[in-house]
Each structure stands twice: as C-alpha cells, then as structure tokens.
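Need residues for this backbone.
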C-alpha cells in the first residue's frame, strides 16, 4: 500500500512543479505588465525570475527527496565535449531556432518591417532579444524537461515521459496570447 501512495505523491509533486512553473511565468508576466514594463523587457524579467525560482525549487526538492531523481539523467554536459562537439551543438541549435522562426514567419506569426536603424542600436537590440530568448528557452527546458523529466523517468519509461512533457509543452503554448 505504501508504494502506490509514494507513486501518487511523486506524480503530484511533478504536476505541482509543472503547474507552478507555468503559474510563475504567467504571474511574473502579468505583474510586469501592470507596472508598465514594455513587452520585450517583460519577457526577459518574467523569464529570469521564473527560471531562478524553478531552479531553487528543483534544488530544494532534490535535496529533500534524493531518491526521487533518476541518476541516469543529468542536466550537465559531458566533460569530454571538445571544441568540435560544441561547435556542432551550436550549429544544430541555431539551425533549429532558425527553422522555428522561419516557420513562424511563414504562417504570419512574425512580421518583419524594414526600418532604418544604425548598426550599434540594431546589434544591441539583437543581443537583447537573443538573451531574452535564451533565458525563456532555458526556463521552458528546465520547467518541462529538466527536473520533472528526470523525476518522472523513475516512474515510467523515458519515451513516455518525453511524449507527455511534449504534449504538455504544446498545450501550454495554446494559452499564449502570441501563439501562432
């Protein structure tokens, strides 16, 4: 009888973590909107706060429930990555980002309007957008595939966890005001 209760408690904790991650992001976004923060900055601020709070939550859970996480799934890269592996990872990652933005542009989710902007301002804005995008991507990965993935992989096979978190990730985007 203890085992089903333990499994139920773990599933509840994983779901609470996922729901908490999404709630933190939404609340952070709405609070910054109420304070009149521009949308571009809102994404950076709410993403940073949500990411940091979720990392703290994951560490606290990890410390108090050590056997919860499946030790086969680590979030750190292998130490033998090497320059060639790093370069190929960066190229693959940038290619994937380009495909996502390209598809969003094709379906009308992104509009490009030419403007005359000096190079320094353009580079600053492009750098800021890149940082905000990376922070929010890190939040998404940690919230949906980080600690919850590793914890759930002890309960069900990894392919099932990947499928479930992918579906939840897609469903979470349905509620985005800027979904396309």
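Answer:
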């Amino acid at each position: 009888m203890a085992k089903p209760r333990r499994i139920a408690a773990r599933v509840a904790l994983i779901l609470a973590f996922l729901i908490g991650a999404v709630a933190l992001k939404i609340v952070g976004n709405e609070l910054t909107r109420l304070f009149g923060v521009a949308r571009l900055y809102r994404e950076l601020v709410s993403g940073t706060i949500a990411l940091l709070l979720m990392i703290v939550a994951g560490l606290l859970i990890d410390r108090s429930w050590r056997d919860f996480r499946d030790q086969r799934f680590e979030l750190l890269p292998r130490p033998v990555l090497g320059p060639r592996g790093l370069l190929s990872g960066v190229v693959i990652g940038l290619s994937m980002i380009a495909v996502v933005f390209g598809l969003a542009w094709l379906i009308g989710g992104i509009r490009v309007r030419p403007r005359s902007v000096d190079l320094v301002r353009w580079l600053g804005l492009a750098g800021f957008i890149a940082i905000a995008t990376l922070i929010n991507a890190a939040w998404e990965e940690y919230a949906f595939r980080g600690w919850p993935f590793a914890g759930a992989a002890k309960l069900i096979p990894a392919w099932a966890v990947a499928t479930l978190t992918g579906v939840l990730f897609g469903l979470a985007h349905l509620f985005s005001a800027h979904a396309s």
